[in-house]
Write a structure and sequence with these properties.
mainly alpha
């Protein structure tokens, strides 16, 4: 006669407590502008940039809170300066009168 192989009763697996990871969505915070960052290297890049956190225009003292708006504002100044130089060159080439442009726009 064949013996049937009986498997011994299995013990139930012990209950392992589930530990939920406590993660913060943003770990690094700039002390000057309160902007938050997920990665340390992004935070360090933010700290080392040349544009200040308060985004104050050096030319007209306008205070901006968004970096993209600040950069667009600075580009507008650059466009204005380029256009002004173009006009100054045109007027100087006419030689109608002598204008000191540096004193005129101070």
């Amino acid at each position: 006669m064949k013996r049937s192989k009986e498997t011994p009763p299995q013990k139930p697996l012990p209950q392992i407590p589930v530990i939920k990871a406590i993660t913060k969505p943003y770990v690094w915070t700039c002390k000057l502008c309160d902007q938050t960052f997920k990665r340390q290297n992004t935070y360090l890049n933010h700290k080392q940039r040349q544009v200040p956190c308060n985004y104050k225009c050096r030319l007209c003292e306008l205070q901006l809170h968004d970096r993209k708006q600040y950069l667009a504002h600075v580009r507008d100044h650059d466009k204005y300066e380029a256009k002004l130089e173009e006009i100054q060159k045109s007027l100087k080439s006419l030689n109608l009168f002598e204008i000191d442009f540096d004193k005129m726009f101070v």
